[in-house]
Amino acid sequence: MASEELARKLQRRLAVEQATLSEDAPEAVTLPVKHSDSEPLEKPAPVDNDTSSELTAKLTRRLDINHGNAAPCVSRVFNPYTEFKEFSRKQIKEMEKMFKRFDSGKDGFIDLMELKLMMEKLGAPQTHLGLKNMIKEVDEDFDGKLSYREFLLIFRKAAAGELQEESGLMALAKLSEIDVSTEGVMGAKDFFEAKMQALSVGSKFEAEIREEKEERKRQELERKQRRAAFKELQSTFCS
């Protein structure tokens, strides 16, 4: 009797467990099918031609640098006063001041957006393509932005008459706030009328250097004279 009752209990327990397992069985799940290497993948969305060509050029140059087929762009230190002798020290200082004013990122470059803001401030806004062409005309290292040296090249080309009258760079040179009309090269109104005077800038530059040295000597002499007078006065009171 005891064994039969135990058998019935085990059968009921087994039936309950089977019913629970059937209820908890997971639903069929559709797994993603992995594409074989031979099957073509979905094609990417089409890219604008200008953007695609620009990106391709940058990637190609990066690959060339990695493979040793091209040298990376290295920022070289230059002396604007000796390299741009056609400008006076006053002119170069004004150009540097203007460059730093619009270099809002303070990274030593004027990028596309900073150039856009500059041209808007000067009252000669440019299109996106126009801004890119402006940079391209003086972008010697092809980094897509203007270094300080490349910024000076704009004024060199303008003074030499190498820029088209309707170009964005010419507008930048003419509308810049650099007031050097007394120097005779970069005045906004008499920009081209003063070009001939640039021939004497080399000697003018040397004269400015001499004047600065003479000024420093004179100041040093005045300091020595004041010190000597003070010592003499001091010895008079102490004696």
Structural commentary:
The structure is a single chain. Strands 1-2 form a two-stranded antiparallel sheet. 15% of the residues are buried. It contains nine helices and two strands. The chain has helices at residues 2-23, 49-66, 80-83, 89-102, 112-121, 128-138, 148-159, 168-175, 201-238, and strands at 109-110, 146-147. The longest helix is centred in the last third of the chain and has 38 residues, at 201-238. It is an all-alpha fold.
Evaluate the radius of gyration: 38 Å
Instruction: Return the structural class.
Output: mainly alpha
Number of strands: 2
Tally of contiguous helical segments: 9
Q: Portion of residues in helices?
A: 55-70%
Oligomeric state: single chain
Helix and strand pattern: HHHHEHHEHHH
SS strand fraction? under 5%
* Major pleated sheet: 2 strands, antiparallel
What is the terminal separation in angstroms? 139 Å
Order of strands across the widest beta sheet?
A: 1-2
Overall 3D shape: elongated
Overall pLDDT confidence: 75
| Poorly predicted segments | 25-36, 179-189
Features:
two-stranded antiparallel ribbon, 239 residues, single chain, mainly alpha, 9 helices
